[in-house]
Amino acid sequence: MTSESVVLVDDLHKKYGSFTAVDGVSFDIRRGETFALLGPNGAGKSSTIEILEGYRDRTSGTVSVLGTDPEKGGLDWKAKLGIVLQSSGESGNVTVREQLSHFARFYPSPRDVDEVIAAVGLEEKQKTLIRKLSGGQRRRVDVALGVIGRPELLFLDEPTTGFDPEARRQFWELIRRLKAEGTSILLTTHYLDEAAQLSDRAGVIAGGRMVALGGINEIGGPDARTPVVRWLENGVQREQRTTTPGAVVAQLGEPEGLEVIRPSLEDVYLQLVGDTESGAFASEAGASTAKEEVAL
Ligand SMILES: Nc1ncnc2c1ncn2[C@@H]1O[C@H](COP(=O)(O)OP(=O)(O)OP(=O)(O)O)[C@@H](O)[C@H]1O
């Protein structure tokens, strides 16, 4: 960890009743980088992020966000954060433009409202009431509200859920622009291609524990990214993992069903999460008990 870290998390624990949702998570986010927090449903990502945002108390561990403990962060600190929650419930009786202009006034150096409307592709809907927007369009308003205050650190919790493919590409462009301006970003997403496109580093959480942490192209270790050559031999599938797939293919000639597979982030992720599945299932059992306690 370095002094240039905008987020420092050390041995973070969060319990709900007797259920441990976050079980000793540590990571840092460096200034200007985009960090993806990945993991299956219920892994503990939102709990972690909400602690960093100051919305949730932690059970134990050390947390620093822009040099401040989120439990003690004041308005000045909050004004430096941009937050796009998983679901905003934003169903206002105001137009897109009114909502953005309204929120822009809360910040000392907001972005230009027109610029933000254009960046999220809502020019044609700027005079439409938010409640009349489609789900994906409302999500774009959430993203616009997250960036209007020119945040130093932007939290994006599943930002593109409900976006059509074109809107997702447009959103990626927006994130790249924010990054180029020096914004540090914490992203959670279930779209592994999105994480691969946007992030510098990633952490994979499963069952409340960090099971992998590293550069987006290095996560899972070097072997996890080794290409696999597959082909059919007398109708039987054969495969060889190799760092020199070209040489293997040259030797094989033109066998039936020949393919070279380069494991994607998604393949590596599924392998990592699969490897910890038994532990994750144990946690899930605990989770349902905790939920019942809350429901009662
Ligand atoms: N207020 C709460 N009371 C009890 N249990 C909770 C509470 N909030 C979260 N949990 C449990 O903690 C675990 C982690 O939840 P969390 O929302 O942090 O997961 P997540 O990784 O963000 O999942 P998703 O990808 O589905 O958003 C889950 O098992 C969840 O049921």
Automatic annotation (TrEMBL):
Q: Which PROSITE patterns match?
A: ABC_TRANSPORTER_1, ABC_TRANSPORTER_2
* Entry GO MF terms: ATP binding
Q: How does it sit in the membrane?
A: Peripheral membrane protein
**ABC transporter domain spans which residues?**
7-232
Localization, per the record, is: Cell membrane
UniProt organism field: Antiquaquibacter oligotrophicus
Keyword tags:
Antibiotic resistance, ATP-binding, Nucleotide-binding, Transport
Top-rank lineage group of the source organism: Bacteria
Name of this protein: ABC-2 type transport system ATP-binding protein
The record's listing under InterPro entries reads:
AAA+_ATPase, ABC_transporter-like_ATP-bd, ABC_transporter-like_CS, ABC_transporter_ATP-binding, P-loop_NTPase
In the record, what lineage is assigned to the organism producing the protein?
Answer: Bacteria, Bacillati, Actinomycetota, Actinomycetes, Micrococcales
